[in-house]
Amino acid sequence: MDLFDKAHRYRRVDDIIAAGLYSWFRPIRESSGGTRVRIDGRELVMAGSNNYLGLTHHPKVMEAARKAIDEFGTGCTGSRFLNGTLSIHEEMEERLARFLGKEACITSGTGYQTNVGAIATLAGKRDVIFGDGDNHASIIDGARLSFARHFKYRHNDVEDLERLLQCTEVGEGGGRLIVTDGVFSMLGDLAPLPELVATAKRHGARLMVDDAHAVGVLGANGTGTPEHFGVLDDVDLIIGTFSKSFACLGGFIAGPQRVIDFVRHTSRSVMFSASVTPASVATVLACLDIIEEEPERRERLWANVRHMKAGFEDLGFEVIDGGSPILSVVIGDELTTLEFNKLLFEHGVFVNPVLPPAAPPGMSLLRTSYMATHTEEDLDLVLAAFKTVSAQLGIVG
After folding, report:
1. How far apart (Å, rounded) are the C-alpha atoms in residues 235 and 255?
2. Which residues are annotated as catalytic?
3. Orientation of helix 278-293 relative to helix 59-72, angle to 10°
4. Per-residue pLDDT tens over the stretch 264-289
5. 206-210 and 149-153 as β-strands: parallel, antiparallel, unpaired?
6. pTM above 0.90, yes or no
């Protein structure tokens, strides 16, 4: 059998294209303020972005990125380990650690790389990883690369985690690592961190939280889900990304100084990939300023989320509201979900269709997400489009 046979047998995308329902890799030609985009000559309200605080087009953020390019150039052309550490990298990491209430922080090129590198570095053959069944793919891949044994507990089911911890022995000299998303990216629900903290302490395990969709958004100061639940000091490691509220690209891990130093000097993601670019570093620093100085931005975001949840429920939709800026509208059937998404696009609304296995079987979703910068006009246009399309398809009573 030829290695490429599997590619030629793969027909799912061909079938969706043939049905005229393909909805991915749509190139955005222009963007205006982040809440409106232009695709194929049509202006749409962007209701599918992770730009939760609306900072990608903030004048202060863009000016900081331009100044960094003027001072440091467009890239570092090397890893942090060798020639790729700039003074602003160190400034950013110190600020992030302080912001997150941790001793130290180290960054990698993407959030994905950060998870893969940190988990594969910290967990080895004698260790055991316990991960939520809905964890992000980067967590799963990091566990696979670590050579540690990896057990999945049922989504947000602390009793199932307890069962696995009780019946699983570590190797001689080994330890336990519990890993969870803080906010799960497709359904938008939150991990039960207080219960996970208590469970980890009972079993002498360490707790790592991937807070990609929460840092900047949740908590009184925008620190994320550990602050939101009042367990910031009890979470050992916080993973995050710059591609959501920090408006650029990169990832970080924050935690105890000795642990971060160990990751800094042994993680392949740190040692063998290029540094975060100067423009991205400056962007993060500018975003941190805004997050710390403008709490009203988070207040506007949550007002927008409440407005949309009430609007969807008034229209009769089943909405998954897990306490994040993500509201997933349950449609059910895959083809109906894709048809609904296509019609929304035609009515000027951009959302993301989510099909199994990213969604539970029989629960295909339209994942919507909101920004602090959405106007009431933007939001009402989204609701009007959902109402029109649901009437066209006859799927809501």
Report:
1. 9
2. 185, 213, 244
3. 150
4. 999 999 999 999 999 999 999 999 99
5. unpaired
6. yes
